[in-house]
Structure formats: C-alpha cells, structure tokens
Design brief:
Radius of gyration: 47 Å
Structural class: mainly alpha
Oligomer: single chain
Distance between the termini: 113 Å
Strand content: under 5%
Largest sheet: none
Order of helices and strands: HHHHH
Helix content: 55-70%
Number of strands: 0
Shape: flat
Amino acid sequence: MSNVTGIVHKVQQAPWRVQRQWIGLFLLGLVITAMLASLHLNITTRTALAGRELQILQDEIIENRRINADLETQLANLTSNAVMRERALAMGFRPARPDEITYVVAPGYQPPTPVNLSRSRPPAAATILLPAYRQSLLEWLSEQLTASNQTTGR
C-alpha cells in the first residue's frame, strides 16, 4: 500500500506546474487563433487584389474598345469617296477618260456566278400531304363522335 501512495504522490503535480499547463494551453489556443486570423486575412487580401486587378482590366478593355471605335471612325472618314478624290487630285491624279481605259482579257477566267437564294418551285415534300393530315382536330373529333353514335345505334 505504501508503494501505491508513493506513486500517487509522485503523479500529483505541484500547483505551479498546473498553472504552467493552463498558461501553455491558453497560449497554444492564442497562437492557433492568430494563425487562423492571419490565414483569413491573407486570403481576403489576395481576393481583394484580384478583384481590383479585374476591375482595372475591364476598364482597360472598355477604353480600348472606345479607342478602336474612334480609329474606325477616322479610317472611314479618311477612306470616304470625297476625301479620297481630294487626296488623289492633290497628288496629281485625275479621272480617266474612256479612250484611256484599256481592258485586259484573261483567258480561262470565269466571272463568279451570282447565288440565287429564291425558291422557284415549292419543295417536293410540301406537295405530298396525306389525307389524314388535311383535317383539323375538331373535324376529326366530330367524325369520331358520329362514328361512335352510329355503332351504338343512337
């Protein structure tokens, strides 16, 4: 029995050791909480930065589309018939007279044939319509009711 009480006495800890264990557990919880908070802050910061970068890129796309539209307008203005005629006259060109035009015949050249998208005759499937499909639902129902009245003898 004295052997057992000696072991129990050794296992029992001093009060300062218990306090140290509680302080250690509290500090461990505090460190884990701080790590989780820093992880959450890191993820939130990355998400906010990615969102801001996405907004900047979208703004750049809108700006580039506007610039592209402006450049297309300028190109259309520069290549308009009136502006091209003025530029050609300024460079010394003039309209050709009929006697100055020479046509060159290229052997074997076949001009492209125009595509005819109109239908000259109705398709063959539209002309073949079975008699069963020429009757409306009301006509068919009326016919069925008449046939059933005749078979029952009324």
